[in-house]
UniProtKB/TrEMBL annotation:
<protein>
    <submittedName>
        <fullName>Serine/threonine protein phosphatase 1</fullName>
        <ecNumber>3.1.3.16</ecNumber>
    </submittedName>
</protein>
<dbReference type="InterPro" id="IPR050126">
    <property type="entry name" value="Ap4A_hydrolase"/>
</dbReference>
<dbReference type="InterPro" id="IPR029052">
    <property type="entry name" value="Metallo-depent_PP-like"/>
</dbReference>
<keyword id="KW-0378">Hydrolase</keyword>
<feature type="domain" description="Calcineurin-like phosphoesterase">
    <location>
        <begin position="5"/>
        <end position="205"/>
    </location>
</feature>
<dbReference type="GO" id="GO:0004722">
    <property type="term" value="F:protein serine/threonine phosphatase activity"/>
</dbReference>
<dbReference type="Pfam" id="PF00149">
    <property type="entry name" value="Metallophos"/>
</dbReference>
<dbReference type="GO" id="GO:0005737">
    <property type="term" value="C:cytoplasm"/>
</dbReference>
<dbReference type="InterPro" id="IPR004843">
    <property type="entry name" value="Calcineurin-like_PHP"/>
</dbReference>
<dbReference type="GO" id="GO:0110154">
    <property type="term" value="P:RNA decapping"/>
</dbReference>
<dbReference type="GO" id="GO:0008803">
    <property type="term" value="F:bis(5'-nucleosyl)-tetraphosphatase (symmetrical) activity"/>
</dbReference>
């Protein structure tokens, strides 16, 4: 089947409801001519980081030729923490209310990792390397396959017309951008670049409200070669969905809100 529509999503940040709403809009099951490119930042800020990662992985397994998932800086930082020396608990201390950690561990597992037996009570202080070690070990043991899948995600996806990336590329290098762009720039580039480039760059990472003069969260297009789609889901409860129609070479943006769960 020839691809006729390419959809892009970014910066889901542990918010499974808006993600499900966006997937209903894309509808890979009913539209075999559609593909989906996910630009990273699946974890942190929301309550369902693990569920988002599992959903992305399942999509890739179901549609291996039509779903591409890229790595974002928050995903990279999460992996760096898992691999770092146990003395370095900076990522853990920045995990507000242990929201990301709690998505990976059930309450009793977390209680044991924090050094007590009460699943209804968190430790008030993360007291150093022992807790850091315990939490990492349980995540790595329980979710080894998921973490290994995350480690294998690429940082950039290139087509004949587009560059899909979490943050951006070294545009000063022109046609040589791929060789010239370090990995950390692909996931952490700031500030965003505007203007003409050799291909259309589709990225997330920087909130579109910082680019729109009116502070709106919808997709930002600079009028040239750049689309930015990070809609601050942690603030708005919505995700921007960018669609590229191959036949006309045109882009259209949609906003997907959370799915209301019913019994």
């Amino acid at each position: 089947m020839t691809i006729e529509r390419t959809y892009a999503l970014s910066d889901i940040h542990g918010h499974i409801g808006p993600f499900r709403a966006a997937l209903q809009l894309v509808d890979l099951d009913r539209d075999p001519a559609a593909e989906l490119v996910l630009l990273g930042d699946y974890v942190d800020r929301g309550p369902a980081s693990r569920e988002v990662l599992e959903t992305v992985r399942d999509l890739q397994q179901r549609f291996p030729d039509r779903v591409t998932a890229l790595l974002g800086n928050h995903d990279d930082w999460f992996l760096d923490w898992l691999d770092a020396d146990d003395e370095d608990s900076s990522w853990l201390l920045g995990d507000a209310d242990l929201g990301t950690v709690k998505s990976f561990l059930d309450p009793l597992e977390l209680a044991h990792a924090l050094g007590h037996d009460d699943p209804g009570s968190d430790a008030s202080v993360l007291d150093g390397p022992t807790m850091n070690h315990n939490i990492k070990r349980v995540i790595l043991d329980r979710h080894a396959d998921l973490i290994e899948w995350l480690r294998g995600l690429p940082r950039v996806h290139e087509t004949d017309e587009q560059i899909f990336v979490h943050a951006g590329v070294d545009e000063e290098a022109g046609d040589l951008w791929r060789a010239a762009t370090p990995d950390h720039v692909l996931t952490e580039k700031f500030p965003p670049t505007f203007g003409p480039f050799v291909k259309t760059v589709i990225a997330g990472h920087v909130r579109t409200s910082e680019m729109h003069e009116d502070g709106s969260h919808v997709t930002f297009h600079d009028g040239d070669s750049h689309y930015y789609i990070d809609g601050s889901v942690e603030v708005t409860g919505r995700l921007n969905v960018l669609r590229f129609s191959v036949a006309g070479g045109t882009y259209e943006s949609f906003v997907a809100g959370p799915v209301v769960e019913t019994d």
